[in-house]
Amino acid sequence: xxxxxxxxxxxxxxxxxxxxxxxxxxxxxxxxxxxxxxxxxxxxxxxxxxxxxxxxxxxxxxxxxxxxxxxxxxxxxxxxxxxxxxxxxxxxxxxxxxxxxxxxxxxxxxxxxxxxxxxxxxxxxxxxxxxxxxxxxxxxxxxxxxxxxxxxxxxxxxxxxxxxxxxxxxxxxxxxxxxxxxxxxxxxxxxxxxxxxxxxxxxxxxxxxxxxxxxxxxxxxxxxxxxxxxxxxxxxxxxxxxxxxxxxx
Length: 249
Description:
four-stranded antiparallel sheet; 9 helices; alpha+beta
């Protein structure tokens, strides 16, 4: 698959990740993240004259990612921060007198767009699972449950990234290609570090710590429920899904 084709397919998957059908959204978002992980590896190594130029790092604070009430700030920030870092971006937030928080993004435009789509889907998934699993529970229990769901989501996102990198390296045909892939992985990680450096140099942000005591039973309940969010291609049935084959055709 050529780079331009990969971008087209990733964009199609990201659009379908907004589907009201949870299974369809899961398939699409998982594949979109996989394509971005795989083909961003070689973007800067392409030996074409029309190779895309490196995008400028910007603060997209004027177009916030999300606004969340005070009680949901911790898990929402953690989720958005994890997705942002996996896609070479960073997050920060501002709080209002009401206690609500506005989450903002820093990064390159195409990476920021990926973060927006994937965060939108996963944030909905967390709330869907809460509604499904926590009827009749207190509001605090539900918030701690959501934190547990995000525990699992973040772990699975990290595992998918590691698996994609591992598979890309397995597919290399010789030692020179392997070195090329390893260099590309290093460049991919460096993109995120460049955004962090820009953020440190241009924004004066205070470090925030959340020290609220969590209900461990609720959090563990959420961690188990979070396994319902599918990221692994085999588990999600991506290879045999007629719907998915239609998506990327």
